[in-house]
Amino acid sequence: MPKLKATLLTGRTVRQGRGKEYGKLSKEYQESVAICQIDPDDMRRLGVVEGSSVRVATDFGSVVVKAAKSARGPHPGVVFIPYGPWASLVVNPETHGTGMPSLKGIPADVESSPGEQVLGLQELLKQNFGKV
Questions:
Q1: What is the 3-state secondary structure (H, E, C) of 79-98?
Q2: What is the pLDDT of residues 10-37, one digit of tens each?
Q3: Which residues make Cβ contacts (< 8 Å) with residue 121, sequence separation at least 6?
Q4: Which pick of 29, 60, 97, 106 has the fewest CB atoms within 10 Å?
């Protein structure tokens, strides 16, 4: 199965902000942040289509999210996950005294993850932290 060596960026999006208005347990919020925006050519190389499950892994963790075709680009080898609990699992938690983790330029591997489902927020928290 092909694997994409990528640089992970995280950040805010308008859709993420709108999703929060429905509440962090809402379908709208999950659909706005449990995604990985990928260059269309990289999606083809990975053999994934929009909405399919992909696993994003870094030195800090891994998470299954939905593939989303990036509207910006081209930007081969660069992927984007909006700020949220799913992104938090793969960013460097070290704050270097600033109170903010490193959220940009993180080396990542992205691969198709057929058969794996994106966890809802409560399941994600329970699986990774033992509680909700």
A1: EEEECCHHHHCCCECCCCCC
A2: 999 888 888 888 888 899 999 999 999 9
A3: 24, 25, 29, 30, 85
A4: 97
CA distance 56 to 110: 5
CA distance 46 to 29: 26
Give pairs for 25-32: CB < 8 Å, separation 24+.
Answer: 25/120, 25/121, 25/122, 29/84, 29/121, 30/118, 30/120, 30/121, 31/66, 32/82, 32/84
CB atoms within 10 A of CB 62: 14
Nearest to 83 by CA among 46, 29, 7: 29
Degrees, nearest 5: CA angle 1-69-76: 65
Tell me how many helices (H) and strands (E) the chain has. Answer: 5, 6
Using the CB atoms, write b or e for 80-102: b if 16+ within 10 Å: bbbbbbbbbbbbeeeeeeeeebe
Contact 108, 77 (CB under 8 A): no
Separation of alpha carbons 77 and 55, rounded Å: 15
The answer to whether the beta carbons of residues 53 and 10 sit under 8 Å apart is: no
